[in-house]
Sequence to fold (85 residues):
Amino acid sequence: MSIDKKELVRRVSKRLSKSSGTVEEIIDATIEEIYESLKQGDSVSLRNFGTFYVRTGRECWVFKFNPSQRLRHAFGWSSTHKSNV
Fold:
């Protein structure tokens, strides 16, 4: 199963009791800011989720993601995270 943007907006709207239009604007703006930061070569860290970054190669950029300890723990990849997921 995968979640598309429409479903993500619906779930966040429900969780926050906000209109889907407002949530969609916030999600769109967040994604645009992440894109712009990565295009400038900056990394983007989202606490308890992970860090997105790019590395330049000889002829291309490589997109990378380093998951947080909490996310690693959720998938059984970490032995250091102590709180509940």
Summary: The first strand starts at residue 44 and ends at 46. The mean pLDDT is 90.
